[in-house]
Amino acid sequence: MRYAMALDITKCVGCADCVVACQTENNVPIGYSRDWIVEKVSGEYPELKLHFESQRCNHCDTHPCVRVCPTGASHVIEGGIVKVKHNDCIGCGACIEACPYEARYFHPDGYVDKCTFCDHRVADGLDPACVSVCPTHCMFFGDLDDPESPVSKVLRENPENFVLAPESGTKPQVYYFKERLHF
Amino acid sequence: MGEKLIVSGRNIEGLYPHVDVWGFGIPLYLFIGGLAAGILIFAAFFYLKGKANEMPVTVKISTIIPPIIIVLGLLFLIGDLHHKMYFWRLMTTFEVKSPMSWGAWILVIVLILSILWPFTFLKEMREFFVQNNRKRWVKWVSWLENLVEKIGFIKKIVDYSVKKRKYIAILLIIFGIALGIYTGILLSAFNARPLWNNSVLGLLFLTSGVSTGAAAIMWLSNNHEEKQLFSKIDLGLIGIELLLIFLMFLGMNWGSDAQQKAAEMFLGGEFTAIFWGIFVMLGLITPGFLEALELKGYKVPIAVPAFLILFGGLLFRVIMVVAGQISTFTF
User: Fold this and answer.
1) pTM (2 d.p.)
2) What ipTM does the predicted assembly reach?
């Protein structure tokens, strides 16, 4: 089982519903967010291209944040979802330093927090909150090992997809399609 | 042209505009680790060479410093934690792939060894302080000697340690090197921070730490030959450090795009002046030059190169931690 997410950047309008839904679903403290919207523009006027990306923890395959954790608080559960055991976390910040996507943050209660792919919803067969509220239906989630899951189907239909900072060696599991802008 | 804007609001403290979760306590602790390691390695090494009586400052007196600064460093470290109540979780497990876990255990072992070592020399230290007319130190060491005599189980531990000094010395060298080198390996383990993610940093931190140890011993010593010896040692270490720094920046400049961008901060960017002008010039080349003059026979107040090296060691770690958090991948 390998959970992953895919986003159609041609349909994302940057409404940030995914951000608010996540904050509501996961009781994220005011001023913090587990996912966020980035606007990317490239090219020279008048040949400009613009798209939005909804970014979050990529639940990477090599999860360097889990490797550096000195207490084992940062760990991986079934399906490759990376989570933090609050009461094992000492708040040293190593995992925050280890994440190239800046997905982790210190919760005001002291432990490190981040996107969990809404594993409590996934366990009930639901999609993560962000995926389920997207008004343009540009987000897909599922098990990559199941060829009929929404994410497997959409990645099969869009072989030209990209991930964020693949050169960092993390093997992230959030895919964006259709094409990457060049910076 | 490429432009990236965060449009949903993510100015979370410590993440925006770049990762900034390690403050001053971390580089201070890295400095303390290196300094303690350096002092302990020299003490154990020269003890094993049989120089304990010829070089009392190196083998005995200077080893009063490591346990004190290690405890101080630990206090800073725990103070920096965001979930302080759970700091003990570090000692309930050993995560084999986490250099931070290695460090937690190395530090405990070194702390215990670094307390035992000076305790096995209390008598010799008191005699040294009497000879050198340090009345206050005589009083403090005598008080410790009395404490050891009075408390049975402490006396047993100290007496046993005196007998096994050779083994403690060997352990001190092994764990001293581990302490000095792991701080660099710790930073290089973060593949998300292109400035740190190279294989030279471990050796560079070890060399720098041993160099600060040599500087401290050089400063404390009251014996001309000892001072000369450590001057020579330090000069060699500074040479190695300069070579490693050159290798590090060469590798970054001829490395991946993220590494090149990280190196640019030091090769024309915002850290150029402070790194080359202050750390390399004042913290490495100047003390090296002064030490060379000293060896040629000129009179140089030893405090100057010693202080510059210690200051440089701390500054180097501050710069690396601050700049490393700014270095990132573009995504």
Assistant:
1) 0.95
2) 0.93
Q: How many domains does chain B have?
A: 1
Assess if residue B8 is contained within a domain.
Answer: no
Structure tokens at B131: 């000879």
Asked if the structure places residue A163 within a domain, the reply is yes
Among the partner residues B6, B12, B192, nearest to A97 by beta-carbon distance: B192
Quick one: closest CA in B to A53, which residue? B6
Q: Are A64 and B190 in contact (CB < 8 Å)?
A: yes
Give me the CATH number covering residue B278: 1.20.1630.10
> Domain for residue A182, yes or no?
no
* 8 Å CB contact of B100 and A40: no
| Cβ-based neighbours of B156, under 8 Å, separated by 6 or more | none
A-chain residues within 8 Å CB-CB of B7?
Answer: 14, 16, 37-39, 52
In a domain, A96, yes or no: yes
Provide the number of structural domains found in chain A. 1
Rounded to whole angstroms, the Cα distance separating A103 from A61 reads: 15
- Residue of chain A minimizing CA distance to B6: A38
Interior/surface letters A76-92, b for 16+ CB within 10 angstroms, e for the rest: eeebbbbbbeeebbbbb
How confident is the model over A34-64, as pLDDT tens digits? 999 999 999 898 999 999 999 999 999 999 9
Instruction: Give CA–CA dist B161/B58, Å, rounded.
Output: 19
Domain that holds residue A79: 3-177
Q: What's the domain range around B255?
A: 25-326
